[in-house]
Records
---
Amino acid sequence: MALNLVPLHFVKNLSSLFIEINIINVRIKEESITNAMASNSVLDVWGWLVSLPPASQWNLDTQCFCIYRSEPSQPSLNLRVIRNIHGHNPHVIFSLTAYFNSHITLWSSNSLHIKEIIDKSFDSKTMQLLLCGIIAGVLKYESYKKSSISVPGMLIEKDCKDIFNLALLTLALLVCIYEAPQDLRFRSIEELSLRLYRRNSQESMKQLVRILGSNLEEQWMRSVNLAITNWIMESRSSNLSLSLPSPFFAYSFSTVGLWKVQLYCPITAMISNNQGNSTHDSRLNFSLNYQQLEGVIQFTYKVIFREYWIDVVVKVDNIRCDVNQLVSEKLMSKEGYGSEEKHFPSRILLQLAPTVQTDVISVSVSKSSDNPIHEVGVEKGVEGSFEPPGSYLGLKVSASETVTLAIKQWKFEQSVHGDSAVLNWFLHDGVNGREVFSTKPPKMAIFRPRSWFRNRYSSAYRPSTRQGGVIFAGDEYGESVWWKICRGGKGKRMDWEICGKVWLTYWPNKHRTFYSETRMLEFKELLHINLET
């Protein structure tokens, strides 16, 4: 019987392979590493943490979860859990680390005491404390507001896996922007931002901001958008090819009689009408870009049942748009021209309609246009006086003529497109009535201190609030829009879609420059009405 001989070179190669396997096994024994960063996988750190055995049963003092690694030989971003169960104060510490031959700590939590659960897996209380630490880690990067963090325990007892994963992903992105070594930064930021701003993360973000409450929500968004702005500005200055998705966040909710949409977007991420997104003046560039659009859209509605149809009546309750700075006033004055050189709202467009229109009979608006005030007054006067005796002339006469022109700066229009109601607010130049969002300021007017757009935040005739925002309330823009729905829709839930655009314009305020630009943000949200009595 012939023998099957194995070639000698194959045996040598096999021996080398066994040696390499042993080396790999030694490395694996140093830490338990879970790699979860396939390109399309779901980042489930929550699931990994709650599946860990009790800390007393760990073979090693450290457990590790890989959040990002582009290639096996490249640096990785990891979440490490380090236990210390010796002594009278057993605890664990969570940290985000960059790993390439050794670990570099980028962020670390406070010590979490685990005496009561040393023989149990992580419970809801521990996860709540960790979530609070992660939220505090994100808010630490907000430039000038500090707040204590408190997350209601009743909400944590529910399945908050997606909220936890999103919060950790946000912290990982900010840590990479500010702290990560250069070899890890670019690719990790690109990957993490794609995960953070993909569509299925939006619902988790809505749940998170509801837990935070309105004050912490604003700080959270400013902290995140400040980091994104820093990264965008750095990428542009370094001529890096940036492929981040738009870091724009909006959410909506429907309750009895009220619809609300909330918007946040850094100015740097808005679409510019200028080919070059910045001016050559670095200080003006800083003032213009380190700002954030914050918007609120509120409608009130009521359902009226008629004999032959159903009326759905929608009214404007409050439209608010503000441009708020992302850095402190001190830094804004040092690096820029202060907080008063910034964009201002110049146009708002809202389109509202049912998503399914088979039950819609008609739609009616209250008026086509709210025409601006246009008054022309001519005032003539003659003054006369007698001079004392001895003067050359005993009588003096003077004549004057005054022409007054008043134009309402914000014009409101309603129109109908199919079964959609279209609401339009336009800001007009207070001198010649031109639409601001589509025009440039007259160059000679830049040097006139009394032009309406100069000193616009302190002038008595300013077209906005003192902070530079606008508010359209129901008492001024409260005309209703009516949809007639056939009676067959009774008892149904109707979904409505609100599509909108917001334009922000910069014209010089106190700083003398010929630079001007307009940026635009577009959004779409879903709302609903229950057609019930």
Note: The longest helix spans residues 214-237.
---
Amino acid sequence: MAGRLLLVLRLLVRDLRRRRTETVLLLVAITTATATLTLGLALNELVTRPYEQTRAATAAPDLVMEPGITGPEALAALAPVATAPGVTGHSGPYPLVFKMLTARDLTVRVVVEGRDAAPAVLDRPAVTDGTWVRPGGVVLEGAFADALGVHSGDTVSIDGHPLRVAGTAVTAARPTYPNVGWHLPSSILHEAGGLVWVDRSDIATLAGTQPLTYTLNLKLADPQAGLSVFGPEQRNPRFRGWHIRTGQQVAEVNSRLNKKAQEALLVGSWLLTVLALAGVAGIVAGRIIGQRRRVGLLKAVGAGPAMIAAVHLAEYLVIGLASAGVGLTVGWFAAPPLFRPTAGLIGSTGLHPPLRVVLAATALALGIAVAATLVPVVRAAATTTIHTLADAATPPRRRRWVIWLSRRLPTALLIGVRINARRPRRARLITVNTLVSAATLAAVLMAQVQDYTPVPLGYSTLPDRREERIIQAILLIAVVACLLALLNTIVSTWTAVLDARQPLAVARALGATPGQAGTGLAIAQLLPAIPGVAAGIPVGIGLVLVLSNGDLRYAPASWMLAMALGVLLAIAVLTAIPAIAAARRPVADTLQSTPT
């Protein structure tokens, strides 16, 4: 047993050293696959968990109550609520006034809440920039400040009173901009607006002649009870006309902000995973092709399927586990800088990925190792030693019309068609690669031409952050997809160069020039990309149709055509250089037996 383990270890080290370039490419490909999977899971964490994280960080209340009356009557109505059975804690009441805020030539609705400098028991807004409230200053809710383009140190005015921006903060007691619940006093009609906090001593000056109303934050023994803690609503007529929010309602409103972006990231993460796996499949296929003669030699010296499996599995396990660790780290820590769900909530993945993410990334890497091992093992059991040593490629199916057509093809095109006929699976991987790439780019073009309706906020309008997050999600997916497609193209070209060295040498020995041979290898990569691009455009349009909220504008056909030609041109350039370089290798050197 010790001797077999030593043999496996020696073959592992020898193969990793001898095939350094292929090992590095495989390491990069599996790392990319695991990083992509981890990135998709981390992005899902970012868009599904921010409200819970914000709620925990800000000691959010379970119930927020605002009377439908104003002044001392509102305070009197809230007094018994704070001591009702089932209420375990409260903060406030805090004065509210509904005004107009002016900043950077924009005048918008704003809910002004008076707060104390000392931290509250419930609803402690987390300051994300600058400081908390102080006399003469104002703190803006994060998403509202982001939409206005206002930062700490700027000056804004509320109803003509200038205030210096002390900072920005986030809260889970109210939905984020623009759904903060702005309304006229004693009105139940909500309008879009923003939220700001000022020092309690400034609220009376800002209110002017407008009567103050108040908000009370409650902590309940049963967070799910909501208003039922006070008994059936119909038995509490004093609550009619009040503005009442539960934690569940706030969470539901906030979830709508990221719903479409989450769908885009979900679909995109699956596309990216398919793209990454296509790259891994390409390099694994190339390595398996190079190891066919090795399988035959192992069988010739008496190795059985178990020994052959152990030799291959050890190699792929080492590469897979190393790739899983690197990919998991890169994907997990890359997610927060790449996508911010909303400036009005705290979005963080944490320092350590959850166990399910670790298991998913590790399972992917090990699955690749097992899949890569399974093919040579099955082939070893089903193929004779002589046939394995011959290392014959997949014979193309000969049809008369194909032979008749091939006679009339130019030499370079004939070589390209012949290479794809020998390795049809690689051609399919190229099609998948270009299909996903073209689909994401088509989705980006579609997203850029849409007319997004801004949010009306009184005298001015501001961008709808929901639409901006959808565009951000699509752009993120497109950038990662283009990087993966670039890597896959390089990997595919390299494996094709390694596999086609001898067929190209034979073609040159029969009279083909180095230019024709190199061009033929480039054409072999370009031909299967054409149907991928053609199918990717409608797929990308379909994705945008699924994610759209209403009327949809289509990108000009000239844009789509330019994108398709650009993708094909990029593939041609990336494949032509190494293909021509490989074709210039001396024929005699190429036709010599390769070491195994």
Note: The mean pLDDT is 76.
---
Amino acid sequence: MKNIFNTSKMLLLFLVLSVSGCSDYIELENKNDIPLKGFYNSESELNYALSGCYSTLRAPIAYEWMLSEIRSDNTFMNLTATTIPQNLQIYSNDIFEAPAFDSFIESYWGTTYQSIRSINALLEGLKTSYNPNSGTIEYGPFTITMTEAERKRIAGEASFMRAYHYFNLVRLYGGVFLIDKVVTSEESLRIPRSTVSDIYKFILADLKNASENCVSAKYGNTTDAQKAVQGKATVWAAKALLAKVYLTLGQKADALQLLTDVINNSGHSILTGATGYSNVFSSTNEMNAEIVFAIRFKSGALGYGSSLSNLFATNNTSVASQTKLAQPVGTRGSYNNPTAELYNSYAANDIRRDYSIKVYKPTATSLSSTWTYWAAKHNIATTVANDSELDWPVLRYSDVLLMYCEAVGANNPTTLGYLNQVHTRAGLTALTSTNVNTQALYEKAVADERRWEFALENQRWFDLLRFSTTMPTINAKAVMNNHFAVMQPFYAQYDGAYTTAQLQQKTADPKFDLLPIPNSEIVTNTINPIQQNPGY
């Protein structure tokens, strides 16, 4: 039996990695951090800064899956017998044992706040400010020559990006540091953690600003105005993200109004046909009608490529040959493997299964003795390591349709129609009212469709947590308890093998609910003591 070392025995290696290990993934220096004073003197400089802010969205994506998808029942890291500290950190997060000094948790936090700093600098340059009393973004006196509509358009896009970051932060860490302007290192030490409710109030203010001021041209409109914002935040992206925030808060009626507007007026649509699903993610079909918002990556050894093709690919040529997976140059491989549980949950004729997941079936002469499932959705050949062209989808039109079903919360001709737009595009027979004739069946159908549709897109963990509010027959802890029961033979390979009961106890631990505030934030602040999340 192969052993996987218990993460509790690796504390010293964690500490070493927290200093040195992150360089394997992405450089933490923020090259888009533009000094504020004296820079913003023209409309062109503000647009330049906006482009820089979009660039900063790329860095956190290298870590996001470690904090979200792998905590769900969708994926795990199938590197047995490893002693590499960074691998052990991912294992620890998979079973809710992450220590407060986990360097990847810290790296996601750091790259996200670096991006927020750039966005704050731009918003200050536009003379905007957040009013916590009214919960609004306010516009002050402004001297740069440009139209007020253009000023607010730039501010709206910046607000969207900041809200996107804080929405992820609050769901992962709980109450975080609400920073709405550029602060010095000394000033940052005096900022306390905000409450969860205050962070959501801030997110709502930003997204309302974005939904009022971003460009609202319909997708497919060939006007210069629409082309100019391709790949940027639009009114429709802002409304879709705001709807997801409202769903998370349990405000279904507010979400439904926004989702109806996006469906009826955005011009976005679902891609259909036998290759409809795969075309959503094609590097030659970027920003298609189904993409409401994506984080853009660009290959070409410019430093703008994605690392995910490398991280999720296999180094084993026999696996790559059998599964038809590309082996990107410099592949690390074996991270974020889909579970057999996810694979088997699909219908055999669901085209999403074989597009998203590839299966290695060992032969009598192969080294591996078990079937292995590989993440194919983000797999593409590269000529330079960590230089994938594939964009990262944040909001898709199918997400909008399924959020509508979630917001209504019951079967009717409209919800069944939207559910079936997604379901039948996958090559499946349309659902009938009989399939969803109880509340539990309806909620399971919506939850399953989201799982299959957005597998490996870092949605599942957030969905499970949200369902406890919107679709209460789907319980995150019950789902994960079942997951641990199914996966126990794998976790039995740990040093000090986990039993099913020991694994299931982890869903009752406070670590299940939130990640730790990075230890570096706590130990370096000698002015304002920072309270750690429970369980750490």
Note: The chain has a mean pLDDT of 90.
---
Amino acid sequence: MPAMKRKLDERDRPQPSSPPKPADTPIPSFASFELEPRLLRGVRDQRWNEPSKPQAEAIPLAIQGKDIILRAGTGTGKTAAYLLPILNTIVRRPRESSPTTTALILVPTKELAQQVTKLARDLSAHCGQSVRTQNLAGKESDVVARAKLAELPDIVVATPARASAHINKGALSLDGLGHLVIDEADLVMGYGFKEDLEAISKSIPKGVQIFLMSATLSTDVEALRPLFRLTEPVVLDLGDLEKDSQQVKQYVIRCAEDEKFLLVYALFMLKLIRGKSIIFVGDVDRSYRVSLFLGQIGIKSCVLNSELPLASRLRMVEEFNKNVYNILIASDEAEVVGSRTKANDDESRPKKKAKSNKTESGVSRGIDFIDVSSIINFDLPSNYKSYFHRIGRTARAGKTGTAISFVIPADKFRKHKPTSFAGSKDDEDVLAKIEQKMEGGQKMENYGFDMKKLEPFRYRFQDALRAVTRIAVREARLKELRTELVNSSKLSRYFEENPEALSHLRHDLNLNHPTRIQPHLAHVPSYLLPGGKKAVEDMGFVGLEKEKKGRAVYRKGKKVVRNKAGKIDPLKTFNMRGRGKK
């Protein structure tokens, strides 16, 4: 059957090559795929009761050896949709076959590479030495990477740049390759990996099964078809589950710049938001400012800082998933302040930038966060696509979630310079574009927050915000970097040879906290609550210190109060009629 060029729809997405199955089609079980029993045990360890829709559609086709282009929302199991067929092929190959690299998985970020590697090892945990997986996306030296590749691992996970470099050096051989996966294909193209992909495509032998996985199907993904000689791939356009109005309840709050902090104070102190939350801000400085502000009111949070090493960022994600922290603050490093695209220019193709765009914090795409109940867009992103990727961190795997976005109206921009953010200039234009791109009856509702009811909190919020100065933000960033240096395993040998450097770092870590902690701000008196549980006149005076018992004595019917030294305190002994009067 000759290959036909498929048309693109109005959203710049290729039309599916075959109509989707009806909604009432029963979802099969993992056992119905006839996977190797050891892999089914790995699936049970993940506590997956039944395959997700992308897995149910893609796995049978992949086992048949078909090339697949899959579009599905984040959190829908795309990674397992290609890992299980690949692992099934590796486990069932003849024992006498010589070892070779069977699968190459290309991902855009190091964080995603670590996540894919972990899932591959977890699913093949009961397969012994039959499956060996290596991650080459880290910062290890070429000597270490060459040693890993010399063992001819079955699965190699890497970024396109690292894979291309090892192919050119002869360390990575693709002669026996059977599967090629490009995960988050649109991001791979958008991060400037086109030249690396072209170099890799020249080393790919004919007949390799190819998977293109993405949350969107755009012209970037379509450009990969001729590059890797995909002639008749099966296109599974399963819809963008990140935009399911039944999954994510979306709200917008129009407020002044300083009121963003007041709203965050109220949302968490009044427990209007429960569960785990991710707060998205515009840049790293803003993330530390929000974190320090929350610390003032006694709320723990962690910052996902792209300046930190990969291992530190992954540890932060793991602690968030394990509920060590319930609030994670992150910024999208791909969004550069001052380069915001206008609402009518979002569709235009961005200009090619420096190679620094290849790395980002990895929060809005790729990284898997567990049980996130709410997303707070403290700073609205630069375009509608980033917005939908952000809110895709919640309502994953069929669960519900909430997304709250703070929007600065044009007449309130730059009215409070200490809390102003340059990226908020076009909030209204970006919001209009987001609402225009919504599908399926989806809408952003007005949260209806009555700001007048928050007036009693203003003095507390201002007191907390006043302590978060520019110097405090700088010191917080430096303190975290020093902590990472002290705990770095790679620097342990250096510190053994230079103990003075370690003592200096530890000395700096023992300095005062970047901001003055004010414990009283963590307590919200009931009379400050909207509506009030008690009236002010019913509140009795409560001293700052406990009353000391046994100090007051009576001498000839008169009250005498003694101080700590045992002497009579004249200021507390006078009677109301004056001294000496009876």
Note: Residues 1-23, 241-246, 333-362, 533-550 have pLDDT under 50 and may be disordered.
